[in-house]
Specification:
The complex is a heterodimer of chains A (326) and B (311). Chain A is an all-alpha fold. Chain A contains 12 helices and 2 strands; from the N terminus they run H-H-H-H-H-H-H-E-E-H-H-H-H-H. Chain A has helices at 2-29, 33-37, 44-54, 60-72, 86-121, 126-140, 143-157, 183-215, 219-226, 231-269, 274-283, 287-315, and strands at residues 170-172, 176-178. In chain A, a hairpin with a 3-residue loop joins strand 1 (170-172) and strand 2 (176-178). In chain A, helix 1 (2-29) runs antiparallel to helix 12. Chain A is globular, with a radius of gyration of 24 Å. With 311 residues, chain B is mostly helical. Chain B has helices at 2-12, 25-34, 37-54, 56-59, 100-136, 138-152, 156-167, 171-198, 201-208, 213-249, 261-272, 278-305; strands at residues 81-82, 88-89. In chain B, strands 1-2 form a two-stranded antiparallel ribbon. In chain B, helix 5 (100-136) packs antiparallel against helix 10 and helix 11 (261-272) packs antiparallel against helix 12 (278-305). Chains A and B meet through helix 1, helix 6, helix 7, helix 10 and helix 11 of A and helix 6, helix 7, helix 10, helix 11 and helix 12 of B.
Chain lengths: 326, 311
């Protein structure tokens, strides 16, 4: 187990390093941020001063080296636009994204697993078929368009919910700004979270249904029934426990995907999270922020993948992590 | 082949009973496919969409990109308004006075074109990589599959966004980003199928006949790995169209000169809050129909082509 975690961490550092190099070189190759950042009226001396101030006059490898040096000291560079620490900018917006992604995941789990079980237990009933048809729609609907339609219906036509922003935030534990503790914040959170949840909701429904469908044919279910256990105990304990492994894996892995997809939802609902920061930064070629965002998100993914693998072995003792290559 | 020979014999026999449909794999697949009304609906919808996209210049009421045909006075008219030239703007007009119906037909063309082009390219690359990995094995396989694993552990939208940030914008670059995102799915699927097929006797027989490796891979291994690939490719066309629309919506996709459905939706975004829903709504419906119809067809193809479900 320990060997596994150490080996994975070492591999992760290599992945991070390669990623940072590729993105650094790639982002360096496109456009010149100076053209966007400095007004066209600025004279040559001003231009050169600005270029020197941002460190853009040095050769590429030297820039990369000073970037790496900064990373070792926990400094991912300074934003060209905001002239503050790029990492600081990202961390400042991280709670908003995390709250959105967690709320979406919660919605997907609370609705998806029961609906999936229902469809799995009665695959030929009307409800089961409707749920499955709905899940195809959940896969097919483009997230951003559903977001627009939600705004159209609930903000423009009905006027029930606000269409953008986070609303009033409350400090959780005295330092973490969250929306879900106030009525105004909750109103702002509902639509984006539902929008972001749709895909995972559909995924969880299908996964749970497939699992339940398969598990019901297994001998242990027949045995449990033969023992005279109540239906709710057979389903709730025996079936659910056995289909939980793929579900937990997917929930874990999808949490990372949610943070990626949050980019779209945040743009639609003007939610002040990391994803919106990335889109804005790509627009103005704010290189340090783009690179820093990527490093943060890759680290995040690596940690999630590792946690899922560890959790996997905890849920199913048959899985031995040392046997897993990589 | 056996079926064709048998029916030829029957055809030569004048007093033979009326020919009974001979069970060939293709016939079976077609019959199985058509046994599901939902799949037929999907196929019909998809055919209609393909038809509209292919013949857009012939059936659109106006050419939405011919500035001479546009009049700013017509801008943002609601659906059903009469057009000055005597027709009707069935789906309304956008902020340039463009007929939305025509814009959607042209948008379908671009969205489908980008989706299919990127899928074909990604399929070619993914097939080659996956077959190479499965056939060569060893370090090559480890390297390819490690890249695939790492790539698949990130959401497609994130990879595409980063690539666009790195490559810059433009149609070719969007296709390149879509190909990069997709090839890994094919590589993984075809490798899985090829590893199973590789151990079968006919490959052994081909080896014994001293056929060249490329002949074994492309003439023997590849055709037998194709069924799962067809399913993955169908699903991926839909995914590519959705991803391109998302990128275009975020302003990082196709240029304004080539307005895909995503760009049309993005254009209407700013008018949505003032109640002018049609500029975003109808292109979205077109996008939705495209993706749903492809997914319905893919769903049925998966069942039909899956040997485990065959009767």
């Amino acid at each position: 187990m320990l060997v596994f975690i150490i080996r994975r961490s070492l591999q992760s550092i290599v992945v991070l390093f390669v990623m940072s190099l590729l993105v650094f070189v790639g982002v360096y190759a496109i456009g010149n941020p100076i053209d966007i950042l400095i007004s066209p009226q600025a004279d040559q001396i001003d231009r050169e001063r600005a270029i020197a101030a941002l460190g853009l006059d040095k050769p590429l490898w030297e820039q990369y080296w000073s970037f790496l040096d900064g990373v070792m000291h926990g400094n991912l560079g300074r934003s060209f636009v905001h002239s503050t620490s790029a990492l600081g900018l990202i961390l400042e917006r991280m709670p908003a994204t995390m709250e959105l992604a967690s709320a979406a995941m919660l919605i997907a789990i609370v609705l998806g697993i029961p609906l999936g079980l229902w469809a799995g237990l009665r695959p030929n009933g009307v409800a089961g078929r409707t749920i499955m048809a709905g899940s195809i729609l959940g896969f097919s609907l483009p997230t951003f368009w559903v977001g627009l339609m939600l705004i159209m219906v609930f903000s423009v036509m009905l006027g029930w919910l606000p269409s953008n922003g986070r609303g009033e935030t409350t400090l959780l534990f005295g330092f973490l700004p969250v929306s879900f503790l106030s009525v105004d914040g909750l109103k702002h959170l509902v639509m984006p979270a539902t929008n972001l949840a749709l895909f995972n909701l559909a995924l969880l429904i299908r996964l749970t249904r497939a699992g339940a469908h398969e598990a019901l044919l297994q001998d242990y279910v027949k045995f449990a029934r033969a023992k005279g256990l109540t239906n709710s105990r057979v389903i709730g304990v025996h079936v659910l426990r056995n289909i939980l492994i793929p579900i937990v894996t997917v929930i874990g892995l999808q949490f990372g995907a949610l943070i990626g997809f949050a980019i779209v939802t945040e743009s639609v609902f003007a939610w002040p999270g990391m994803g919106k920061l990335l889109i804005d930064s790509i627009g103005v070629l704010d290189r340090p922020v783009i690179v820093a965002y990527l490093l943060v998100i890759v680290t995040f993914f690596i940690v999630i993948n590792l946690l899922v693998d560890v959790l996997y072995s905890a849920l199913d003792p048959r899985i031995r992590l040392t046997d897993v290559k990589g | 082949m056996g079926g064709a020979a048998r029916s030829a014999v029957r055809g030569g026999h004048t007093s033979a009973p009326p020919p009974v449909a001979v069970e060939t794999p293709l016939r079976r697949i077609v019959a199985d496919f058509l046994s599901n009304p939902v799949a037929i609906f999907g196929l019909a919808l998809l055919s209609l969409i393909l038809f509209l996209a292919l013949f857009a210049p012939l059936i659109s009421p106006q050419n939405p990109y011919d500035l001479a045909q546009l009049d700013v006075m017509d801008s943002r008219l609601p659906p059903g308004s009469a057009s000055p030239s005597g027709g009707t703007f069935w789906l309304g007009t956008d902020d340039q006075g463009r007929d939305m119906l025509s814009a959607i037909f042209y948008g379908l063309r671009i969205s489908l074109g980008v989706g299919i082009a990127s899928t074909v390219l990604a399929l070619a690359i993914g097939l080659t990589m996956g077959l190479t990995a499965a056939y060569v094995g060893g370090r090559v396989e480890m390297l390819i599959m490690r890249v695939v694993d790492i790539q698949l552990s990130f959401p497609a939208i994130l990879i595409a966004l980063i690539l666009i940030a790195v490559l810059g914008q433009g149609t070719g670059k969007v296709i390149a980003a879509l190909v990069t995102v997709q090839w890994a799915y094919y590589a993984r699927t075809v490798r899985g199928a090829a590893l199973v097929e590789k151990r079968k006797e006919y490959i052994e027989a081909a080896h014994c006949l001293a056929l060249s490796p490329s002949r074994i891979v492309f003439r023997h291994l590849l055709p037998n790995c194709l069924p799962p690939m067809i399913v993955v490719a169908t699903v991926q066309v839909a995914a590519a169209i959705a991803l391109e629309a998302t990128l275009s919506f975020l302003g990082l996709g196709l240029p304004i000169t080539e307005p895909s459905l995503g760009l049309l939706i993005a254009n209407g975004y700013q008018y949505l809050l003032s109640g002018k829903y049609w500029i975003s709504f109808f292109p979205g419906i077109a996008l939705l129909c495209t993706i749903v119809s492809i997914n319905l067809v893919a769903d049925q193809l998966r069942d039909v082509l899956n040997p485990r479900l065959q009767r």
